[in-house]
Specification:
21% helix, four-stranded antiparallel β-sheet, 5 helices, Elongation Factor Tu (Ef-tu), domain 3, alpha+beta
Amino acid sequence: MSSPLDLVSLQRVKAWLNINALVNTTVATSIAAGQQTVTPANMVGILPNQLLSIDTGESDEEIVLVISTTPTTFTANFAVPHSGPGIAVVLATDAILPDLITSAGLWWLTQTGRVPSDGSVPTVSPLVQVCNFNEWYDGSSTARQFVRNPPIARASGVVITVNGIVIPQSTGPLNPGWVIAEGASSFAIRQGGYSRVPFLHYYRGIGWQGAFTEGIQNVNLQYPGGYAQTPFDIVQACTEMIGGTFKKRQWIGLRSQAMAAGGGTVTYGDWVVEKPVRRVIENYTRKAIV
């Protein structure tokens, strides 16, 4: 995976698309514009009628079609010149798919409601790794506060502040304080037993009512949240989504196409995301009002 947002690897998507070729080489000398025959460091995987990405990641990156090959060279039409040495040559799919994978990872975050509340573009994904969050909430006025990025990974590293007061962690059923609630999607406040009433009265005396007090942005939750490894159903759903997007580029705008010699008609789907993928997204979408 090339980005912290990536939910699936390039190799897995290529396997799903049945793309077995591997091209990863360089050209040592500069390439002029026009039809040129070039000599890469190796010809592994380079075949006629294949699309190659030249100068991948550079400002003059382009996709070329291989016209012909010899054991040591390939010929193609180049729209722009490329300066050597070290001109990268890879499969066009290897240049296109990484961007699709990273874009899909960001799209999943927006669809599941896991983007930062300040509107910034995330640089890490709780669907890929456990991340440290520092978030402000309007108090729920109850003993439970749902978080934006479940599951809560562990108790260590958690700091909960309500109305400026740091709330202690409960160490048992009779001890007031916060606990990670069932499902690890929220924190809950234990009131404690009768033996702890003086302790709880102390906090009430300084402004804490034993709950996530109602207010505007008065609750601060600092916690580690997310998955240590991307769940398998997300990996598969994202693989299928990217594979479908990659294939659709061949018929953008088409709804149907007549086959030659009256062989019938091919009809293309007009959905944006297929239902099985949408169901997985729904499973990981934050539903609580926070």
